[in-house]
Structures are given as structure tokens and as C-alpha cells.
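Memo to structure team: turn this sequence into C-alpha cells by end of day. - J.P.
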Amino acid sequence: MPGFWQLYTPFQPRYNIHMVCIAAFIILILIGVVIAFLSIFNRNLGKKYLKVLKKSWHCFSRRITFRKCDTKFSDDVKNILLKKVVIKKPKLVKPISITIEIASIAIVVLTAWSLIEAVKAGLALWVFGTCNVSQPANCALGAESCAIDEADLNWFTEWGEIVKNIPDRLKTWKAEDYLVDDVKPLLEKSNKDAELALDIIDPGCSVCQRSYKNQIEDEKFLKNHAVSLMLYPIKLDDGSYKFKNSKTLTHYFYALNRMEDDQLGVSGLELKLIDRLFTEQDKNGINFQTVFNNDLEEKEAEKLIQDWLKEWGLDDKKVKKVQEKAHSKEIEELIEEIAKIVEEKVKPKGIPTMIYDGKKHLGLYKKK
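Reply from structure team:
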């Protein structure tokens, strides 16, 4: 006995692609969770659903493997949807039938697109630590970090970025390969077998602050690694910086790092600078990172850094030397070289980014 579809509609597509059975399978999968819950109270409902799902899967599996599909299930779906219309308003059967086919195609296309987007987001999350390549901050599932956004990346460019960087995720990473000459590690090796670890941070990034605190509190990590901080102030498209005074802090950090101990009479001031910035508070109980980000203009920030240097044992003459070094072409070129290494070799979408134990670690460091 032919179904209502064959009896009452003259519309038959020239190329019957049987999208209805594929669309029906997708819809059945989506409502499966609800049916599974209702089956707790009504087992017969679950049995009926599984029976329909099996028929749907048979048709679906044949279509996706490019085999001829048994049209019975497809026609059953149409008959269910059209039987009342056939009896009451037969003239509407043809337009409704066409609408069913169009809706089925739309469901299949949207589902395929959703799956492609899900794969793309999953790969991006694995490769970059964010599911949104262009706007990392918009991904709630990404590694906790301060995002480095990239504008004007279209859909195909994003795919290209992901595929191109998959080998980076699989390779063995060595911190030594990304260091700049003459930039000294901040923490000396605690034993001869200690491995070098590289931390890429922005002094204005709150996640970098938390990551730093977690790391210095992790005695096991510090025992087995010599840590070198690489300061990378995140730059925006307009040439400004994401965090106020990050550039000033970075210039002073590298000026102190590059100056010999005999020039200053004291060592390790660059680490003291970062440590105070991240872990200490002003007289009002406000963390110094927040003070630099929110309250100080550039000259005020520089003045505060200079006051700290005097507190740590430098006289006015030595502070002046540090200031001159911080504003020198040498430090400017050093920071540009570091930016090139970060952007072209490490390629993070957010920081902190760390390199140790043969891997590139994305986002917040968590104590083991």
C-alpha cells in the first residue's frame, strides 16, 4: 500500500537525496535525552523510541556511506506529518511536502556546520588554549589567561592558523631555544639536574600575578627548575598597551637585568621589582599591580619604581644610571626582539605561557 506521500503529491524531486531520513535521525538524537529521562517512568515509551531510532539509524547509516536508502522510513515520516493535511486540505500537500524537504536540508546543513565549528573550536582549544582564535577572550572554555587578540582573521584564516600550529603542540619544547642572549635566569638552579623553565608574562596581567604566586609557592617546582621570566607587554592594534604602565615596568625590568652587579652593587633587583609588584600592597592595602594599572600615570609609575630602587640600596647616581638604561635604544631593541620571539616562535593566544618539561603550557600555573 503506497503511503500518503505517493498517493497525493505529484511532487517528486528529480534527484531524491532523502534528506528527510537524515534530518529525522538528527532530531531523534536531540530528543533522546528527554526520552531517556521519561523512560524512567514509562519503559514502553523508551522501547518505542528505540524501535524508531533503529529504523532511523539504518536509513541514516546508508545515506552517509553513499548507499541507496530504504525509502520506507523516509516515507513514514512524511506520512505522519501529512496524513491529516491529505484528508482535510489535499491542495496543501505539495507545498508542505516541499517545505519538509527544504527544512530537512536546512537541518542537515546546520548540523554539519555545527559539527565543523565544534571540531574547529576543539582543535583551537587544544592548540592555543582558546576556542576562538581571533578573539581569545570570548572563549569561556579556554585556559585562564590574559588574551592576545588578533583582528581581521576570517574563518578560513583561523583554520589555517590552527592547522599550521598543530606541529607546535606535538613537538618537544626547550626553554633554552627561546631565550635572548645575556638575559639572566632569575632563580639559580637548586641542583645540577634542574631544568630551565621560561615564563612569558605581562606585568599588568592579573592572571600572570596569580600564576607567579602559585609558582613561587610550589617548592617542588622551584627545586627542579631554574626560572627565567620573559616580560611581554601585550600591545593593542592602536599601538597602546593592554595594561597601563606595563611598558614602563618592562623597560626597568630589563635595564636591571642587563646591568652588571658591579654597576649597581646589588643583584636580583629585577626579581624584587616583579615580586613586589605581584605580592605586596601599598599603605592602603591595595596590591601594587592594581596601583600601576589603575592609579599611576607614566611619570608617577617611573617615580615609584625609582623610590623602590633607593629603598633597596641604590643611591641617586645609580638610580639615574638605571633610568638611562631603561630609556636606552639597547633596551628598546631588546624588547622588540623578545616580542618577535613571542609572536613568531612561541605564538601564544594568551599569557602567561610557560615552557618546561618539554611542553608549552598555556594559561594559569596551578600548584601540583
